[in-house]
Design goal:
By secondary structure, the chain is mainly beta. The protein has 2 domains: 11-302, Rossmann fold (3-Layer(aba) Sandwich); 311-481 and 491-510, Neuraminidase. The chain has 8 helices and 40 strands. Strands 3-4-5-2-1-8-11 form a 7-stranded mixed beta sheet. α3 (69-89) packs across α7, α4 (144-150) packs parallel to α6 and α5 crosses α6. It starts with 10 loop residues before the first strand and ends with a strand.
Length: 667
């Protein structure tokens, strides 16, 4: 395959099961990347033919409609092309070139690219979702894509769309699919890889019937195909991309995190795909009519949520005074480091030893200036088995030397059931005054488990309790030496706190009472100590994505009012840090705004907010969540990761009392 013209240094590579997965579960993030003119390569594994009836599922007469699998596949492709053309060019009828492409010997796909924007390409492999002749339904434990992944099916047939440029169907094995994706990764050279959740949360569990997943089986299998292709891509020495796994149907279980504007944008593009935008159809097979105008009914489309949400504590000042930024690139931990303490630029990335990491990393500084890195390691086994364990690495603050990754096990390891263990949540980590590491993880029961060091060694996993916790834990050490761990569930915020240094943890499952309905966070809580016995919590409001601040009184109770700090939306955790010197006492707050840009504001620590403050925005398309830290001179540094795979940062100006920031830089 020849390379398309380079649109920019950013290259997004996506792998999905069905032709609408990115519209439902990734947008508006995808729209922001396309609107910026970046290169996008999207791959769809299945034909998405379902029952072959392209009729609104609410139509009482749809069972009488003729079955046309090839026609329905064609309709979904046409709808997706219309949606992409709308996002890129604002013209749903913009022309596409459609051609067969041999990815590896014996494996062909159909490639579509926009003639006016050839850096936007869609690839369809066309694996059949169902094979009723052999007893495989489109969904459930016998779904064909899942069976292909775990080895129960040796090969899977493909389907040709009604207008396909391919000449004949194929039968593909697992190795064919992985090899094809690996070749496409080499072709796209991505800085960013997006796919679905490889280990979704369960919807229900019964000892007799087992685990019922919250997501479509095709989504889960697709994510695992994508991860295996990424592993091979990386082992060949290719540049590691930032990776993100998006939550699928499980979004419906949590507070919605999109603003009305962002949700309206998402719905308008799904309506284009479904032919429900009122535009006359110019094709014989027009859009996914099964959806009709009912895209809004499907609550899982009300959010865009990462399975492994990035926290805000990944920017750390080392013992030598230099700042270091950490994340996972590909499947390895990576670090960028300041060239000099309190100035200069960041150099990196330096990839740390060890692989197979999922894209989440907790950063816990210790009292020596070193840092504990805590993540999730996922190792694929035979017959679809996946072993997920919590791992840690210690990095020395002056020399940068590291100890090898050490397994901390899994909060559900005592069950002996790898299916439960694979649902482990994103770790939070903190070090107590004695230098002992504490690790908190969401468990299979959707509560919280903890493992910690003591003078006698590591404890076993302790179950701390909690119900229906969102995967957004934040652990902090207060100036008193006690540790607090904050989290959110379906209805509000909770806290586990130590009443004594080194003591047990007590759950406060009604952290805040008497507060209006805005106290239903759609993100994790970011705590900042703003007094000897006071904390301010920053979070996203449900249904708006607005940044909210809730403050604690000196007596430990919480104010009955909540400060609204932004008018627009956005997703991801809110970063905040206090800058306290003899001359100043400020809070620096950073977020990802509704256009996926970094936005920064500076507030007086004890000042009340009657109106949203002014925010400084920058035209970087970012991913994940920002981080804030003070450099060796006490100036705030705000850092983000861009979709170009690079670290971007800005530093507070030296002038005072002006607390503004200088230009943004990229490593």
């Amino acid at each position: 395959m020849t390379q398309p013209p380079e649109a920019s240094s950013t290259s997004l590579f996506q792998v999905f099961a069905h032709a609408d997965d990115d519209l439902y579960f990734v947008n508006p993030d995808l729209y922001r990347v396309l609107a910026a003119g970046h290169r996008v390569t999207s791959v769809y594994l299945t034909a998405g033919e379902a029952d072959g009836r392209n009729v609104d599922t609410r139509d009482p007469l749809r069972d009488q409609a003729p079955v046309d699998f090839a026609g329905y596949m064609e309709a979904r492709q046409n709808g997706l092309c219309a949606a992409y053309a709308t996002m890129v060019l604002g013209d749903r009828e913009a022309p596409w070139t459609r051609e067969p492409v041999e990815l590896v010997p014996g494996v062909a796909a159909e490639r579509f690219y926009l003639e006016q924007a050839p850096h936007v390409q869609l690839f369809f492999l066309g694996l059949r979702m169902a094979d009723t002749a052999h007893g495989f339904p489109a969904d459930g434990p016998q779904a064909r894509l899942t069976s292909l992944w775990d080895g129960r099916a040796a090969r899977q047939p493909t389907l040709l769309a009604a207008g396909s440029a391919l000449h004949q169907p194929q039968e593909l094995g697992r190795e064919d699919v992985v090899a094809a994706l690996t070749q496409l990764l080499s072709y796209a050279r991505p800085t960013l890889l997006w796919t679905m959740d490889p280990d979704p949360l369960h919807e229900s569990y019964d000892e007799g019937r087992g685990i019922t997943s919250s997501d479509h089986a095709d989504h889960t299998a697709t994510a695992q195909f994508a991860r295996e292709a990424l592993r091979r891509h990386l082992r060949a020495g290719s540049r590691p991309p930032l990776t993100e796994h998006f939550t699928g149907y499980g979004n419906k279980n949590w507070p919605s995190n999109l603003s009305e504007r962002s949700h309206a944008l998402k719905k308008s593009l799904i309506d284009v795909y479904a032919g429900a935008d009122g535009h006359p159809c110019a094709h014989r097979h027009c859009g996914d009519l099964q959806l009709g105008d009912g895209a809004d009914i499907r609550r899982y489309g009300w959010s865009t949520r990462s399975r492994y949400p990035q926290g805000t504590q990944w920017l750390h000042r080392q013992g030598d005074g230099r700042l270091a930024a950490y994340t996972v690139l590909g499947d390895q931990a990576a670090v960028w480091t300041e060239t000099e303490a309190g100035g200069g630029h960041f150099e990196g990335p330096l990839l740390l030893p060890g692989g197979d990491l999922l894209p989440c990393l907790a950063v816990a500084p210790d009292r020596t200036g070193g840092v504990h890195l805590v993540g999730l390691r996922r190792v694929q086994g035979p017959e679809g088995r996946a072993d997920v364990d919590v791992v840690r690495m210690w990095r020395q603050g002056h020399t940068g030397s590291v100890l090898p990754w050490e397994s901390l096990g899994n909060p559900d390891e005592a069950t002996g059931d790898w299916r439960r263990c694979r649902e482990a949540g994103v770790p939070a980590a903190v070090v107590d005054p004695a230098g002992h590491l504490h690790v908190f993880v969401r468990n299979f029961s959707v509560g919280v488990s903890m493992r910690r060091e003591t003078p006698e060694g590591l404890t076993a996993w302790e179950v701390l309790g909690g119900r229906w916790m969102q995967d957004s834990l934040t652990a902090v050490a207060r100036s008193t030496g006690r540790i607090d761990m904050y989290a959110t569930n379906r209805t509000g915020g909770v806290r586990w706190r130590q009443e004594a240094v080194y003591g047990p943890f007590k759950l406060e499952d009604q952290l805040v009472t008497g507060v209006p309905e805005s106290w239903r966070p759609a993100s994790g809580l970011t705590p900042v100590q703003v007094g000897r016995n006071r904390v301010a919590l920053f979070y996203r409001e449900e249904d708006s994505g607005a940044v909210m601040r809730h403050r604690q009184r000196p007596n430990g109770t919480w104010e009955q009012r909540v400060d609204r700090l932004s008018d627009d939306g956005g997703t991801g955790a809110v970063a905040a840090a206090r800058l306290l010197t003899p001359e100043r006492d400020l809070l620096v707050v950073a977020r990802r705004d509704e256009r996926s840009r970094p936005a920064v504001t500076v507030l007086p620590t004890d000042g009340r907010t009657t109106a949203p403050p002014d925010w400084e925005h920058h035209e970087i398309v970012m991913t994940g969540a920002p981080a804030v830290a003070a450099d060796a001179h006490g100036r705030a540094v705000v850092a983000v990761f861009g979709t170009d795979g690079r670290l971007h940062w800005t530093r507070q100006d030296t002038s005072w009392p002006d607390p503004g920031f200088g230009p943004w830089h990229a490593a």
